[in-house]
Structure formats: C-alpha cells, structure tokens
Amino acid sequence: xxxxxxxxxxxxxxxxxxxxxxxxxxxxxxxxxxxxxxxxxxxxxxxxxxxxxxxxxxxxxxxxxxxxxxxxxxxxxxxxxxxxxxxxxxxxxxxxxxxxxxxxxxxxxxxxxxxxxxxxxxxxxxxxxxxxxxxxxxxxxxxxxxxxxxxxxxxxxxxxxxxxxxxxxxxxxxxxxxxxxxxxxxxxxxxxxxxxxxxxxxxxxxxxxxxxxxxxxxxxxxxxxxxxxxxxxxxxxxxxxxxxxxxxxxxxxxxxxxxxxxxxxxxxxxxxxxxxxxxxxxxxxxxxxxxxxxxxxxxxxxxxxxxxxxxxxxxxxxxxxxxxxxxxxxxxxxxxxxxxxxxxxxxxxxxxxxxxxxxxxxxxxxxxxxxxxxxxxxxxxxxxxxxxxxxxxxxxxxxxxxxxxxxxxxxxxxxxxxxxxxxxxxxxxxxxxxxxxxxxxxxxxxxxxxxxxxxxxxxxxxxxxxxxxxxxxxxxxxxxxxxxxxxxxxxxxxxxxxxxxxxxxxxxxxxxxxxxxxxxxxxxxxxxxxxxxxxxxxxxxxxxxxxxxxxxxxxxxxxxxxxxxxxxxxxxxxxxxxxxxxxxxxxxxxxxxxx
Length: 595
What we know:
five-stranded antiparallel beta sheet, Beta-lactamase, about 600 residues, elongated, 16 strands
C-alpha cells in the first residue's frame, strides 16, 4: 500500500512562500489517513457480523427443522441394536386391469408381553380376556407366570382393541407396529388372490408371505424391495368379476348344486377377465386347510382350476373339428348315428335312448349331441392322432396359469389308449380335466386356431401361440356350436343381441368303488360370444346340480349350467363394451304404417 507523506516537501515550501502554517498540512493529511483506516475497519467489522448472522440463522434453521420432524413423528421406544437379518415387511399392491385395488397393506399393531414388567398379571389376564373373548383367562395367567420372559398375545389389533389394551395401563403390555395384508373387496376374487399370512416376525415388524393363489405364486415378485412401489396388475376386471360371482352364487343356490365355477377369457390374448368358484371365502379371514373329508367340501377348493372332472359332451366339438381339419369330413358329411352302437362287449347309447340315425350330418351330430355319431368320427381319426390333437389344445397338461393350485391339478387320462378309449374320449368320458383346461381349448378354437396360453396378468404384448388348426376349420366349428344354441341342447343360452355359440356337457360322477353314480353329475356349458366375431369364451361348471322346478328333477347341462351362463353373458357383455346386435326382421313380418 502506498502511504501518503504527512509533510510533502513541495507543499511545505509552497506554504512557507505564501505565509501559510506548514503544520496545518500535516494535520490535514493525518486526518485523511485516519478516515481511510476507520473505513477499512468498519468494512471488516460489518463482514464479520454478516458471517456470524448467517451461522446463527443456519444453526437455528437446522434445530427448528429437527424439532418439527420429531414433533410430527410417532414416538418409539429405544431399542438395543443387535445383529441379524432385517425383516422386509413391504409388499406390492395387486390391482385389476383398470387400476382398482384387489390387495394392499394396512398399518396395524401386534400385542406382546414382557412378563418381567407386569405389575399385576392376574388383573391383566382378566382384562385381556374381557377384550378378546377367544382368549382364556386361566391360560393367560398360567403363561404369564410360567417363567417365560416374552409372550405374543395377538398378532393383529384393531384401533379400538389397541385403545382398550392401552387403558389397562400395565407397563408389561407392549405394541409392535407392522403391516398386514388387506383385501378391501372381501370375498371378491378370493380364489384368485388366495391369501397371505405372517412369516418371520419381530416386535417392530413382520414379513407378509403369500399362502395360496396368486399371492403365493407371485410371492417373490410381490416381496421384492426393488418393486415394492410397483403394483402387480392382473387381467381381472373387478366389475365383471363381481357380476360373474354374483350370478354363479345365485346359480349354485337355485340349481341345488354342491359348488360351481365360471371362467371368462379373452380369446385373442388368453387374459382371464373373471375366474370364480363357489362356495367362496374371505381372504381377510382365510379358514384353515381341511384335515379330513373331501377337499371339494372346503370353500378353499378352487373348482375352476383344482376340479378335475369328466367334462362330457363338451369334448365332441374337438372330434368334429379335428376330422374337418384332416379333410375326413365336412359339416354336411353324413355319418353313421344309428343307436345303440355295439363295440365288442361295449354298448354306446344316446341320452334317454334316443336314436339320431341312421345317418346324420356332422353339424347335426354336434347340435343334437350324438354319442354314436361322435364315436364314428373318432374312429375315422384314430387314437394316435386324437391324442396328439387333444394334447395340442392343452387338455393333457396342468394349466400354466399363475395360480399355485394349478401345478397339482393335472388332467387324468388312461395309461393305455385302445380304440374303445378313442371312442369314449371323443364324447368326454374316460378323460378328465379342469374347467380352465376346457376354456383354454375353446379359446383356441374361437380365435381361429392359435393355441392360447391362459394368464391372470395383464398382457402388455400380443400373445404368441402355435397354430393348432386351420382358420377355416375353426370358423366351421364355431358355426356348428352356434347351431347347438339355436337348434340344439343349449337353447336357453340364446341371449338376444349377442349370438352365443357353445356346447353342453353332462357327465356322471365316478363312484369310489368303480362305475358311475347316475344321481350325481357335473354339468358344463362352454360358450363363445359373439359367434360372428368371437371375442370371449365363458365356461360354467356346476357340481351335482339338480333343477327341481318341473314335474321331475332335471340334471342335464341344458337345464342347469346353460341358464347360469346365459345370465352371466347377459350381464357381463355390456360391461365388456359389447353392443347388442339387433338382427333385422324379415319384411313379411313387418307392417307398414302411414301417418
């Protein structure tokens, strides 16, 4: 820094020559120097004050934010840190195809006891037994005083129960926060979702694991922490599912059936829009698995997937379609339908000893559901080709659908396949499959012959499948099934505006000791709609139905499964966006009116 001299020589000499006092020059320069020094000192002081103010502001901001966070958080008891694997409690939501919640999580609390901290075990046992009637006071007191230090009392508490326990006021009663699985729609889609329960548990969290259905099949995906915020989107349509379940439950009751199942599938994508089984259950309070009796007696039994039944005459369209595809027949080809038919020691009869022969077209055989005519068609095909075709439709393998129960539900077929099995299998006897297997096979026909892979997950890409039959064959098969509704055994399925096609099947249930029970049947109606441009397949199966409104009990599918399926189509088709197609009236049936 350049310093200005206090007594510059030039100015001093000038001042002396003019008679001024040279000392005033020194005083003036000294004053100016002091002012400069004072300005610099003031600037440094101001800078220090600004920095100090910023430090204080930052400190108070951090402290205030921390205090606010602590005030807004839930108070927690301090826990001693310990080594171990952290319990991953989060689980992804499950949604329907339109984003509506099927399964989600809810924050709740568990109740546990540190027995060493109990002040009055007898009073606590009495109070808890009053809050939870299922708990026994004497058992609780014994467990509180038998020497153990830790005890679970309840895994899940409602807010009201938690408040009542809190009011007991004993320091030995403690609450552990956790998430539980919640199914907000109750019984809706119960057999699809399955249910969940607690796995590994700690006092501050518990892992939720799938126990059945989609929850168990997709358990790893749903528990993946990296995908916890990404819901699993299913193919189900919640509104359609509710409609199907409602009609099926009513149908089971009206037809006096033991149970039933219904499957609605998109024939182009294989997506299952609704899958219902009855009787049903609430996955929020899933009952225990049965330890005795028939599995089908439990509401947990999923008849749509686990029910392995002989599906009767619904198989006849497969024989007709294969024979047409091989060039052996056309829908108008005449086939021997003279009943009864003798084959060795076996006799093939028609329902109620009808005789649709001596000759009938293939289309009439399907419309009238002729066992004898179908048997002759199967003999043209041969056993080896028949087996290959049925396998290509997925009728010999467990369904690949995303349900854990499907893995163990493999269709039943004879180990040997002589010609008599070729005959009986053609009309659905001697081979068994699930309603879902049947729905998949019918979807393959309905979409023009491309094999369908069923799925409960919403598809984001087009389905890829092998061609099973020619497109022309598939169209002829659907056309023949349309005649079953307009002229044959499924006349009650003729829903105005939706051109339903389908095939009925009535199969007697096997007895344990061999043979068949004539009073117990499984009735199935497999339908396609609309027949002129197939979009959906619906399969309805009823277990041991009997229609009793007439003068005598009726057990055929045309009187039981068909009207249930018709009502489902009547309700579900508008929900699926299908507009009813009004068929034009013939001119001679109209009357012109002039105003």
